[in-house]
Amino acid sequence: MRRHWGVLGVLWAACVAAQEPATHVVQRGETLWGIAQQYLADPFLWPEIFRLNADAIRDPARIYPGQVLRLPILVAPAVAAEGRDTAAGPVIRFAEEEPPRAVTPGEFYGAEFLAAENEVVPLGQVAELRAPSVVQQRIAPQIQLYDRVYVALRPGASVRLGDRLHLVRRQRRLIPYGWVYVPTGVATVAALDGATATAVIVQMFDAVAVGDWAVAVPEFRVPVGAMPTPGGGRLEGRVIAFAVPHPVPSTKDRVVLNVGRAHGVNEGDEFVVVLPPERRRWGVRPEIEVARVRVLRVMERTATARITELQQPALRLGLPARRVAQLR
User: Fold this and answer.
1) Given pLDDT bands bounded at 50, 70 and 90, which one contains residue 126?
2) Which of 63, 127, 190, 295 has its C-alpha lying 20 to 30 A from 55's C-alpha?
3) What are the residues facing 152 on neighbouring strands?
């Protein structure tokens, strides 16, 4: 252990001297596993190095000689002022944190959501791009912002001029909760001709495509700049999905919780995700905070939340999530 702290101490000193995160130049035959063992004294912490270098590493199993990798920032023992007992040596700062900010309309409308079949009622489907040319094209043109599209309305759909349509794509099924929906954009109805609406794409969150569902735009109820206040009423759920699966989650990624409107959850609520206590040979390992998440979109029995703080590279499905702040 003393040897490990010695290695960490040298790395911390280098960080302070350079006033920037430490780096490592990959040598022939090295792996993230070995680099984590060398610098962090624990090979199982390799995902943290991968996360910091996701822009340069596509496959964590393949790194190449000459690559310059950023390493986790170390915090000196002097940070005891923060209230931590750091007498044993420097501490690795795995936490990744966003500045506190309120949920915005763009996040609300662009967030993936998990909903039961009867919660999402399509008014129609994107049928075709309203192209200026009548010449048939072999390859369908890509739909862009401010393009006009034809929406084939379903029988009985109530749509009027000026209405906004939320465009979504049904992605995958998650039993027993329903389907994960990916918002692709927002369109405004510019013309109606029987069962066909012409709509202008006014917002895009993903690639809008033929076949996307057009549903009613949900109401965004979060007051501008509103932040949650401490207190969660002892509500606890679990992480049941990642909105977009990723090998190493980071802040701004989104998770889905198995609590929703029926449980009193609102957009803007904050949850903490934890590793529960675990019995070991020497006793019981206490609960460990893994991440904090802010709710962006609430359905009847699920909620989509953005990761705002990541304390440990151990965020995974099934972990408990306890509400710690509510938007009142």
Assistant:
1) very high
2) 295
3) 125, 196
